[in-house]
Design a protein that fits this description.
Helices cover 35% and strands 44% of the residues. It has 192 residues and is α+β, with helices and mostly antiparallel strands. A hairpin with a 2-residue loop joins β3 and β4. This is Exported protein.
C-alpha cells in the first residue's frame, strides 16, 4: 500500500505523466491497428484477426469469404475461406497422405499449363491453432516468370463442418504480410 501511495504521489507531481500518456497512446494505437471481426458463412459464424488495411469480399470467385492484404507491387496476399457443407468429416491420415500424390500431380499439371516451375512441396502435416485443435495442411511454392509464389491449404472441422482455407502470396508479400496471415489463421475461431 505504501508503494502505491508513492506511485500516486509521483503521478500527481507530474514526473511520470509523460510515460503514462505514451503507454496509453501505444496501447490504444495497437488496438486501433487491428481488430477481431465476426463473419457469417452459411449457417456458421466465425471470428478472426482482421488487420488494418485489409479488405474482405463475400462470394468472390465463388469463395464464401476472401481476405485481401494491402497492394504490394501490384499484387495482394489472399486468404480464401471456404465452408464446404460436408458434415462431420473424418480425417483418415492414411487416405489423406495417399492423396498427397494426387495433389502434387494436379499442381504440376497446373504449373505446366501456366509455364511455371515447382520450387518445393510442403508435405502433408497435422498441426493446431489456438482455437482449432486439429489442422491438416499441404502446400507448395513455385515460380512463374520471375515471381516466387507460396500457396498453402488448410483443412479442419468447424462446428462439425469441414472448412478449407487457402493462402496465396508472393515471396515479397510473405516478407511484408506473412506474420499477419499467420495471425489471421491462428486466431480463427468457430462461433455458435
Amino acid at each position: 500500500m505504501k508503494n502505491l501511495r508513492k506511485f500516486n504521489i509521483k503521478l500527481e507531481n507530474g514526473k511520470y505523466k509523460n510515460i503514462l500518456l505514451i503507454l496509453i497512446f501505444s496501447l490504444t494505437f495497437q488496438v486501433a491497428s487491428a481488430t477481431e471481426k465476426d463473419f457469417t458463412l452459411g449457417k456458421n459464424k466465425i471470428n478472426l484477426h482482421y488487420p488494418k488495411g485489409w479488405q474482405h469480399a463475400f462470394n468472390f470467385l465463388n469463395t464464401p469469404l476472401t481476405l485481401f492484404g494491402p497492394v504490394l507491387n501490384g499484387r495482394r496476399a489472399v486468404v480464401s475461406i471456404n465452408n464446404t457443407n460436408i458434415k462431420d468429416f473424418s480425417f483418415n491420415k492414411k487416405d489423406l497422405q495417399d492423396n498427397e500424390d494426387n495433389y502434387k500431380n494436379g499442381r504440376l499439371k497446373w504449373l505446366k499449363k501456366n509455364k511455371g516451375k515447382v520450387v518445393r512441396f510442403t508435405g502433408y502435416r497435422i498441426s493446431k491453432w489456438k482455437n482449432i485443435p486439429e489442422i491438416h495442411s499441404i502446400g507448395y511454392s513455385y515460380t512463374i516468370k520471375n515471381d516466387l509464389f507460396l500457396e498453402k491449404s488448410y483443412f479442419f472441422n468447424c462446428n462439425n463442418e469441414l472448412f478449407n482455407i487457402s493462402t496465396l502470396m508472393t515471396w515479397e508479400q510473405n516478407k511484408s504480410h506473412g506474420k499477419e496471415v499467420k495471425k489471421i489463421l491462428s486466431s480463427f475461431k468457430c462461433l455458435k
